[in-house]
Amino acid sequence: MYAQMVTSEAADDSPEARAFQARIDAGEKIEPKDWMPEAYRRTLIRQIGQHAHSEIVGQLPEGNWITRAPTLERKAILLAKVQDEAGHGLYLYCAAETLGVSRDDLTEDLLSGRMKYSSIFNYPTLTWADMGAVGWLVDGAAIMNQVPLQRTSYGPYARAMVRICKEESFHQRQGYDIMLKMCRGTPAQKRMAQDAMNRFWYPALMMFGPSDKDSVHSAQSMAWRIKINTNDELRQKFVDETVPQAEFLGLAIPDTDLRWNEERGHYDFSEPDWTEFYDVIKGNGPCNVERMTARRKAWDDGAWVREGLLAHARKKAGKVAAE
Amino acid sequence: MTTQSRKPEWPLWEVFIRGQHGLNHRHVGSLHAPDAEAAIRHARDVYTRRNEGVSIWVVEARHIAASSPSDKGPLFEPSESKVYRHPTFYDIPDEAGPM
Lengths: 323, 99
Known about the structure:
Helix content of chain A is 65%, strand content 2%.
């Protein structure tokens, strides 16, 4: 999940808030100009903002491999995927802006650390197999969360998710395709694929956020339909779908306790190390500093372009007006 | 969350795409751009990466006038009672043939 541990504020009990909840319960979409509780608006800004930031920061681990892709075709594919991530970030920023926050405010809140992005992007991408693991596992985990969000109560968010989900399937399949190629390649290539799997499995499980018993914000967000499934439901679904895919590749899941539970009809699996998760969220992951430094540099280095083009547009508009 | 911006942002543009020849332009989303020319270029990159369009319109968001949710009643309720505007209101005998 790209939005983790979004703080949800409690709803008030005014007649307007009750009427609002009734609309959501009836399956109506909330649109930007409709009345909404302040807490709903603020929670959504945090959630959509965090989601958008994750798409933008998510370009960095993969951007690392664009110039190192093994073939021109793989390079073109990776470039297209990274461009999609930028597009996804832009769709989501626009959705957040309909709630009355400005784009620059969102950016500055990311750069100052007031807003977060998904923990997953604080892990390094060390080999080409990591491009496979990221597409297959990370985008796969994101899809689990994003597909139900197409039915979320806030119209602009739901519509952004529809566009994103259409494109996300390409991401997961190209990742699996990389893994497939490596697993059918030389023993060294297969080892590389297994190594990527070993490093990304638990961080991918962490993407869904803390266990339901520790997830304090879920109830209100679920009542508002800005969260559709619980963290544990989605994590279980991800594991159930991923295990057969790993078996097909001939890759081992790095969990000795993973086994099919006939009674539950699901796989039993080990939880990730939540201490590591909270540590990464706090900023102590392997790449937090590197990611934020790259984002700040991009923002600062781009300032003259933003200002220059705006000045040019104003000058041109002035000339047209004077004619 | 802060709400005061420090520097002026590129204005917001609403993007409309004609998906195929013969169809209307449809609103697909918005983006920021310094001027119309750049907005079209950005719209190409953001909204038509997979052959989604044959034509793009952009309009600065501030130029769009919109009805407000509270006008919903006065604007749209009058048509609710006018069932005779629909062909299904009229009961034409089958004997009259296809119509």
